[in-house]
Amino acid sequence: MQQKSVVVVCFVDKRYMTFGVSPGEVVGTLRDRVARRLRLKRRQAACFEVFAWVCGGVPGPEVGHESAIPERVVYAARRFDALFGVRRRRHCLRLAYAQAAFSVNSGRVSCGPADAVVLAALQCCALGAAPESVGLRLEEVVPRPLFDSRSDWEPAIAAEMKLFSRRSSDDFRRRYLDIVEKWPSYGVSLFPCAEIAAYRASRSAYAHAIARRRGDVAVGISRFGVGFYASRSASRFAARFFEDRAATLDLKDLARWGHRGDVEFYVELTPDAPELPVLDLLDRSSSSDSSKRLFGGKKKKVSPLRVACVTRDGARAAGLLRDYALARLDARLELDDYATTDDDDDENEEENRRDENEPSEVAAATRIASRWRGTRLRLRSLEREESSILLQALARGVLARRRFVRRRRRAARDSPKPRDVPLRSAVIRRRDAPSRATPPSRATPPPKPPPSRATPPPPPQRKHQVARAATRVQRVWRGYHVRRDLSRLETELAAVHIQAFFRGHLVRMEA
């Protein structure tokens, strides 16, 4: 029976798995076995690549592609500088990235800052088409200071990615940010601390600390909350890097936070917040009564936990945490306002739809009232029109009769009339003539005075002439007033008719 070797199969998005296969087995058979184990369909089985490391029989690891393992063999590079020899073909980039990820995860190769930049560029080139498949989490191998200084490592990664492909550096930078922004440690601001101690919020004296830790400790502020970090052990390949040893405290678990000058930053937990992850990071003080009540004996109601960090920049840490809290609060308020607006719009639409479908008594009453007003206006306009016609006929009759009488009188005045009394000559004596004793029959007629140049006085008028003139003036004045009132009445009647017709038109349009 042929002896089987242990083959390690590494996927881009599933880390690596171990299978026992024969050394001469082709990679197609190995792919089918992996697909059956992962419960994939036949079509899906052909969509992923298999990277195999033969751990027995051949010195050193070997990497296989879709063809048979003995035919296509790519030896793994023991240094990252050798990865630059496989930049051309895409499947070679995938193989190189898989080998590098396996070497780093297994601890065979240590990853420094320069090597981490190359590995990040290789990861982005291999996984750019599927950003949801993060593959190797660089936060486990990249130094924490490199994550803090984004202005240093982002251009370096973009420059390395440009060497692997002809695309622009901005395109690869955006693609890589789509991957790393999903990591919890992305954007964490670290503040190294000389000491971290836990107290009870009700006690002001720092001598009664529950737990404390000195040196190699840091507090991290991110959009997720506050995290406490400790240095890794010296036996690991990344001894100078910080590792997340305590769970991150979410912003909802913090009751308050602040700083005392620039040398201390503190956070206070809510009563429901978990305390054990924070206390596991610190060295518990066995002589503290509070720790005994917390970890043993009868449970009693204790005050909230307060964690104080002695750091150089406590004010900046408190301000950064406040900015993250305000940003989360604004985002939550925007979501609530958007949801409330949507609910109000739905309710208003439902009410409007109900009003349109159901018959309304108010609408029926309004329609009846509008029709009644239109009928009443039409009847009133008809009565006013008949009255105006009658008044105009009477006025025209009066004017015609007056005109006829005036014409008749003028004709009678201008026509000549025969005199009933004949003319006789007579001598009229003047009042200022001197009286004589002689009888008038014998007296000689006085001489005629010279003609006077003054205007003769007007002839005397009779009373009936004065009365006739006054009557004529009054008649003309009354006629003027009647004509003026008639014109005003006609204007008002026309305006009333126009308004009535317009209201009737509106009523008919609404009906």
Automatic annotation (TrEMBL):
Where in this chain does the record put each FERM central domain?
93-191
Q: Where is this region: Disordered?
A: 338-367, 406-468
Q: Which UniProt keywords apply?
A: Calmodulin-binding, Cytoplasm, Repeat
Biological process (GO) annotations held by this record are: establishment of meiotic spindle localization; mitotic cell cycle; spindle organization
Composition bias of kind Basic and acidic residues appears in: 412-422
Question: Which domain of life does the UniProt lineage start with?
Answer: Eukaryota
Q: Where is the composition biased (Pro residues)?
A: 442-460
Supply one GO CC term from the record. cytoplasm
Show the GO MF annotations.
Answer: calmodulin binding
Q: Which InterPro entries match?
A: ASPM (IPR051185), FERM_2 (IPR035963), FERM_central (IPR019748), IQ_motif_EF-hand-BS (IPR000048)
Q: Which PROSITE patterns is this protein grouped with?
A: IQ
Q: In what ranges is there compositional bias, type Acidic residues?
A: 338-350
Indicate where this protein resides in the cell: Cytoplasm
Q: Which Pfam families match?
A: FERM_M, IQ
Per the record, the major location class is: cytoplasm
Question: How is this protein named in the record?
Answer: FERM central domain-containing protein
